[in-house]
Batch of 2 targets.
Target 1
Amino acid sequence: MKMVLLGPPGAGKGTQAERLSKHLDVPTISTGAIIRNEIKEKTQLGVEAHKYISEGKLVPDSLVISMVKERLSKPDCSKGFILDGFPRTIEQAQTLDSMTDITKVLCIKVKDEEILNRLSGRRECKVCRASYHIMYNKPAKEGICDKCGGELICREDDTVETIKNRIAVYHEQTEPIIQYYASQGKLAVVEGRDDVEDTTKAVFEALDI
Ligand code: AMP
């Protein structure tokens, strides 16, 4: 299964991607996570991308596309993958189509007014990048990752001003992709619920798995 997960920031793409990845035994490719890692490692790409990510803007297509091309060429992607956060522009979607044949696209819908609430409560593991929420997806021990014991932190781009920019960017540049995939007959849509388990149930049902 070669899947794309679409949806606004805070829809729960990362969490659902993790669960699907385990179930389908294919890797998750999160462009946001790759970029944050490049920033942490202070690579040239990381330095370049940092100014965009910190303002809630999209990193230029050329940088992201070459990053994804390289990742998809790795052997672990041969039997499938789940793309989380890519494509985010029509140009990225068209380039992806020229690289591979996407099986299914799932869009998780969440209203704008809910996004702010969700993202301001989001926490991420500093070590393994697992995603939590202080209300809806709590770790067993506050501030500590269930999976690896790492410290949970607030992402740099989860501030109110940056979140507002990311929502605007989503409507302008990413939303047109929904229609792009709908016209290919590959799109399934689910409502993102507050409870993570409810969303997972809806996602698995929509995908017939
Ligand atoms: P995410 O973790 O998916 O919310 O992504 C965080 C940030 O990384 C975004 O706000 C963008 O600045 C950048 N980013 C991630 N994926 C892409 C992409 N496909 N195209 C451009 N920028 C991206």
Note: The mean pLDDT is 95.
Target 2
Amino acid sequence: MIILVINCGSSSIKFQLFDMPSKKDLAKGLIERIGEEDAKITYKHNGEKLVEVLPIKDHKEGLSKLAQVITDAETGVVSSLSDIEAVGHRVVHGGEYYSSSVVIDDIVLKAINDCADLAPLHNPPNLMGITEAINMFPGVKNVAVFDTAFHQTLPEYAYTYPISHSYYDKYKVRRYGFHGTSHSFVAGRAAELLGKPLSEVNLITCHLGNGCSITAVKNGNSIDTSMGLTPLEGLVMGTRSGDIDPAILFYLAKKENLTINDFDRILNKESGLLGISGISNDQRNLEDIQDSNKMAKLALDIFDYKLKKYIGCYLAVLNRVDAIVFTGGIGENGHLSREKSCSDMDALGVEIDTKKNEETIRGKEGDISKASSRVKILVVPTDEEGQIASDTYQLVK
Ligand code: AMP
């Protein structure tokens, strides 16, 4: 069964074609800068890469371009669009409606639309991709895979904020958590590596990319996670602040006459590694200059310290932990962050093997803990698209 996976952002479409159930990667690509004269499509298949810059007006045109490259006589991997038997969509917010993936119908479309208030940057483009795919592939089943679904097992005391309960009653203000597809995928793979059923493992999964989140997994279920109502809470990120004292906002609002929109921009786009360093949101760039640049080093130190604090929290929450699992661009490659966030924790049963850690980069899977470490430390490359394809296959086969 050939399955197309689509991840629509506000100005981008990421896509991948899989042959299921073998999960064979047939082709993948990215369309960026939708709405611009110089939009760009990058497309990879059979070890070849095609890059084209062209005007793409909207997501509808983007998907037509996608359809053209995958069916083209030279670059195509299917002879016609009717070869595609299902489409899996990444949807960021499923609110309290969905704790697992679902086949999309009118009720699901309405629910995704209802959650747009909670994820105004993500759900509307996700919905646009779904609507276009429904038109483009008539009669084909579309499946929604939600970033929030895995965290719907959080207990009430972990998802409720300590503010007036009326805000939950009226507006559903609560912790939802994100990156669920990734946390769920690496938890499953970690259980396989540990040789135990998922329902018997306790894990701390760290998804560290441009966005970062950490999850406490008990007996295979998410029981706490660092992102909250939105993906702004928790760890330090590329450009997002993560946790700060909320009173900083009142103080700065008075000092600098800042508005809600200013804070939205400052905390989401101008904080985190970029805000502290004043140089870059990219870990690699900061690591390269940290010996000579004090602010780059400080940014990395704060990132690693916050990560270590959350690991400590979740060790307490879980008590028995089988493994700490690292994934995402930084989690899979950033051996310095892994080392700093797991060092000096031998009394808590966490002992990192520095040599194995340094050797585990670029998509490699591995155990980077010392043989004596009570808590294993694993690196597991994430595969969100593959997981979306698997969920889609399970629901439509
Ligand atoms: P992602 O959002 O998962 O693509 O991850 C992006 C982040 O991964 C950026 O901060 C990159 O700097 C970081 N990253 C990628 N490769 C490396 C590397 N070799 N060392 C440190 N960080 C890396």
Note: Residues 355 and 368 are 8 Å apart (CA to CA).
